[in-house]
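Technical annex, item 7. During the second reporting period the consortium partners agreed on a shared format for inverse folding records so that results from different sites could be compared directly. Each record opens with the tokenized structure and is followed by the designed sequence. A conforming record, contributed by the partner at site C, is shown below for reference.
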């Protein structure tokens, strides 16, 4: 609430500055402010800022922090940054929170924001999975009157939890093969964040559907991938290998493979590489899984 109030006060000061300006430039226009019958000259973007102020005021009226104090949208939306406070809350964050709160009120549903990730032993990798575990525990607590579950059952369940193709590890010889269905920039960013928790040289087997944001997927992961092995996908929506290869910069090392089997054999044969990550599409993972499970 303090952060929201601070953001609001900054905007109000800016509004006051423009309103008190005697010199009017060409970028000004006349608009109605706050339903006032009087018409005042304001800068073009100030009408939007007035609406932002209204939204912040509405948020401050409705925002109720639960007694557990588990509130932190930065952890919910940017968990890979491991932020633990509301410092740096942007106007867009405030507006998104406001939308969530309004919808929760509309459907008469309690809304809880999770602040911290699960601190115990967990079978899944990545800071985001600890947040997910905390969400699951909160759901269990809310439903405990219907499904009595002991704390020991929760601890053991989270410790043993596995999700296929979500940073799924397969050990083959001295290589760790990671299967992940990351197929959009947000998922790739999370994948890269998890890779960086154990920074070792990594090669990728990659392909994606043509209608995905492939450019951003490559850009987000390039610093973590030493070499790319590109494979075809058997889908009408798949991107052609030549077009996929053209998306990489000259400084990036790519190898175009005739199929998934070829790519897997090439990467397993690399002497100084210990980790292979396969991602880009559900189709990519499906093709790889069929081969890897036979090894």
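Designed sequence (site C submission):
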């Amino acid at each position: 609430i303090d952060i929201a109030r601070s953001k609001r006060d900054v905007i109000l000061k800016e509004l006051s500055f423009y309103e008190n300006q005697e010199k009017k430039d060409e970028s000004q226009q006349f608009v109605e402010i706050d339903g006032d019958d009087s018409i005042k000259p304001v800068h073009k973007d100030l009408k939007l800022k007035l609406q932002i102020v209204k939204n912040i005021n509405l948020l401050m009226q409705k925002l109720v922090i639960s007694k557990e104090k588990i509130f932190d949208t930065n952890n919910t939306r940017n968990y890979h940054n491991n932020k633990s406070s509301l410092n740096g809350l942007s106007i867009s964050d405030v507006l998104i929170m406001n939308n969530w709160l309004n919808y929760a009120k509309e459907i008469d549903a309690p809304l809880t924001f999770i602040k911290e990730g699960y601190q115990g032993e967990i079978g899944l990798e990545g800071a985001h999975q600890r947040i997910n575990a905390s969400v699951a525990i909160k759901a269990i607590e809310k439903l405990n009157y219907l499904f009595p579950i002991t704390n020991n059952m929760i601890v053991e369940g989270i410790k043993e939890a596995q999700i296929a193709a979500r940073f799924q590890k397969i050990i083959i010889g001295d290589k760790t093969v990671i299967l992940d269905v990351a197929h959009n920039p947000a998922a790739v960013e999370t994948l890269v964040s998890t890779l960086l928790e154990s920074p070792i040289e990594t090669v990728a087997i990659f392909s994606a559907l043509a209608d995905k944001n492939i450019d951003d997927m490559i850009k987000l992961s390039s610093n973590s991938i030493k070499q790319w092995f590109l494979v075809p996908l058997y889908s009408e929506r798949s991107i052609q290998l030549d077009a996929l290869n053209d998306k990489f910069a000259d400084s990036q090392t790519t190898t175009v493979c005739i199929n998934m089997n070829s790519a897997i054999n090439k990467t397993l044969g690399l002497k100084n590489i210990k980790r292979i990550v396969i991602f880009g599409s559900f189709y990519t993972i499906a093709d790889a899984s069929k081969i890897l499970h036979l090894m």
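Confidence is low (pLDDT under 50) at residues 22-42, 64-87. The first helix runs from residue 2 to 20. All partners now use this format for quarterly exchanges.
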